[in-house]
Design brief:
With about 200 residues, this protein is mainly beta. The chain has a domain of about 130 residues: Pnp Oxidase, Chain A (Roll), CATH 2.30.110. The chain is about 5% helix and about 50% strand. It has one helix and ten strands. Strands 1, 2, 3, 4, 7, 8, 9 and 10 form an eight-stranded antiparallel β-sheet that branches. The longest helix is centred in the middle third of the chain and has 8 residues.
Length: about 200
């Protein structure tokens, strides 16, 4: 007789990523929201590839062996991490600045002694990039239940390659690492009753 419960299987058919500059004035969300509206102070990163978002919590440990046992008697935590990976599809100002870690600036030229915008924009790729810190929220929902992952302090850890071709859209692949925030890497919120779910 099966001992599992198929009602506890979850999917994430819809969701959104939101980003906000880290700063003293930012208030992190403490509820799941309505599943549509960005948290206050956050902006949506737009469409994500069909592979969705990958959340990866991990712990690195060192086993402690003992003379009296062939198996470790204790594990010590060396490191803990929480990563979010996604491939963004929109070549918006917000997405490209997040991906490249730099800001777009409109070029100007001197016309009769007056600086005049040229209608062209420039993004400088520094050899010593300034690693910008930000807050990140990942929302998703399934069968009326809302879920939200909040990373208090985050930075881009890895960037994928951008392919320029005729039949495939540009994609911006990002891996984002959570950083320590008073002993926490982030938190998960949900409207589902996890106290009574079997």
């Amino acid at each position: 007789m099966p001992s599992g419960n198929a009602e506890n299987i979850r999917f994430a058919p819809d969701g959104m990523l939101y980003i906000a500059p880290a700063g003293a004035g930012l208030v992190l969300p403490t509820d799941t929201g309505d599943g549509v509206t960005p948290p206050a102070g956050f902006k949506a990163l737009g469409y994500v590839s069909e592979n969705g978002v990958t959340l990866t919590p991990s712990i690195t440990t060192t086993p402690l062996p003992a003379w009296q046992s062939a198996a470790p008697v204790l594990y010590n935590v060396d490191a803990a991490s929480f990563q979010l990976s996604a491939t963004l599809l929109e070549a918006s100002k917000l997405v490209t600045e997040t991906f490249f870690g730099a800001e777009w600036v409109e070029s100007v030229e001197d016309v009769a002694g007056s600086p005049t915008p040229t209608g062209e924009y420039r993004l400088d790729l520094s050899s010593l990039p300034d690693m910008k810190e930000f807050a990140l929220v990942c929302d998703w929902k399934y069968k009326g239940h809302l879920w939200r992952a909040v990373i208090n302090r985050a930075m881009v850890a890895e960037r994928g390659a951008i392919t320029l071709q005729r039949t495939q859209s540009q994609q911006f692949e990002l891996t984002i690492d959570a950083m320590d925030a008073s002993g926490k890497l982030g938190y998960i919120l949900t409207t589902e009753d996890m106290g009574t779910t079997p």
